[in-house]
Amino acid sequence: ALLVELFTSLLQHPLRNQAPAPQHTPGSIPDRDPPSHPLGLVPHQIRGYVSTFQNMNIRGQSYDCCSACSPKVLDAYRTDGWGFVKRALQEKDYVAELSGLAEVQRRAEEMAANVDWEEEDDDLVEDGEAELL
Length: 133
What we know:
This protein is mainly α. 41% of the residues lie in helices and 8% in strands. Residues 15-38 are annotated as: Disordered.
């Protein structure tokens, strides 16, 4: 039901898929954007919490490696259309590789592997010879 409401609000918004994310100002609750839009806000991200059954609208910046809306993914969809969708469904890592997200993950794993988790000055602290600052 939430998806249908969101999709309908997006389709009916004067700016359609260019509708801005709601702006939260302290002390106010945004309910319309623009004020004349009868279907209310068009949030860009909704985070749900099962433990409290609450949703939160998140406003964030676009990410150039997003697997949904990065320029590379959008260009591939515009170019190949249904062929892009079929390939994304058939090839497990296609979208992650295309968007650049797979490379980001590889770099993060490489950096995590290079982290030295051992503390070098353990014996000084144990012997009571550490300097207090």
